[in-house]
Write a structure and sequence with these properties.
The chain has 318 residues and is of the alpha/beta class. The protein is built from ten helices and eight strands. It has one domain: Arginase, Chain A (3-Layer(aba) Sandwich).
């Protein structure tokens, strides 16, 4: 856990990758979040923010492993994931809170792998909360589309099929029991069977409607704290209802409301367990005058302590 007595530092890295998805436009996501005021907001909350700019994989040599069947743009995505993983590891070692701006959700195969490497070295258990309309637990043998942004969570949990993706970069898989799918409302048949087989925790929208986000988020928080763990939040914008966030390429009706999403962020802030963050799948090309980007920035503000009214905050919160 980051020492809350030291100066609060955030390291931001853009990963403008879009070829893991079928809809082009997410490469504009990192700059849209900056334009919507993300860095300024974080600085106003007394964080020292270092912007590392946007990654590029130009000049990164291709590996010579055999590309798995049914994996679109495998070679190019492999360049991205290797590069992101190495940078995520370096950023985590500085003690800053790393924030990765996407880009499609395939970037998480690199960002979380790098964070997980660092957690292993420090002896902390890494949990991952997957705020997403989709489970993203496909493999090359279960996927219908071949789009690799739908394989991210499965890769992180060590599933077979993308074993050469990282090349010489160490793979630091998490156990499937430490993945929390939250807000799921679209899942393929074979993918669903695999999720059940692996015992992955799923809080779908039915469960959220039945129990409420407060109860379910507190269950996750309690579990992470019980194991002295830390949490990586992987926030796919399509977790939100399309009425709130139209600027995504894979809208699914029935998502989280604006208020539900804020409550999730506020509870996670108060818990002090969030160690790192992805913001993915924002597609400014599909947005309405920046409405989705602004909503996302407001939600991240809540995650990092922005409050409407003053109230006591636990000393171990972000």
């Amino acid at each position: 856990m980051i020492d809350r007595e030291s100066p609060k530092e955030i390291a931001v890295l853009g990963a403008p990758i879009e070829i893991g998805a079928s809809q082009m436009g997410t490469l504009m996501g990192p700059d849209a979040l900056r334009t919507a005021g993300l860095l300024t907001l974080l600085e106003s909350l007394d964080f020292a923010v270092e912007d590392h700019g946007n990654l590029s994989v130009a000049g990164i040599a291709a590996l010579k492993d055999k590309a798995p069947d049914n994996t679109k743009h495998y070679r190019e995505i492999q360049r991205w994931i290797r590069t992101i993983s190495a940078r995520a590891y370096e950023m985590s070692r500085t003690g800053a809170i790393p924030i990765f701006l996407g880009g499609d959700h395939s970037l998480s195969m690199g960002s979380i792998n790098g964070v997980a490497r660092h957690c292993r070295e420090t002896g902390r258990e890494l949990f991952v909360m997957w705020l997403d309309a989709h489970a993203d637990y496909n493999t090359p043998t279960t996927t219908i589309t071949g789009n690799m942004h739908g394989m991210s969570a499965a890769f992180l949990c060590g599933e077979d099929g993308l074993d050469g993706l990282l090349g010489d970069e160490p793979r630091a898989s998490i156990h499937s029991s430490r993945l929390e799918l939250f807000g799921t409302r679209s899942i393929d048949k074979l993918e669903k069977e695999l999720v059940k087989l692996r015992g992955v925790s799923v809080a779908d929208m039915r469960k959220i409607d039945e129990f409420g986000v407060s109860v379910l988020i507190r269950r996750v928080i309690d579990r992470v704290k019980a194991e002295n763990g830390v949490l990586h939040l992987s926030f796919d914008v399509d977790f939100l209802d399309p009425e709130v966030a139209p600027g995504v390429g894979t809208t699914v009706p029935g998502g989280a409301t604006y208020r539900e999403a804020h409550l999730i962020m506020e509870l996670l802030h108060d818990s002090g367990i969030v160690h790192s963050l992805d913001i993915v799948e924002l597609n400014p090309f599909l947005d309405e005058r920046g409405r989705t980007a602004r909503s996302v920035v407001e939600l991240i503000g809540s995650l990092f302590g922005q409050q409407i009214s003053d109230r006591p905050t636990p000393t171990n919160a972000i």
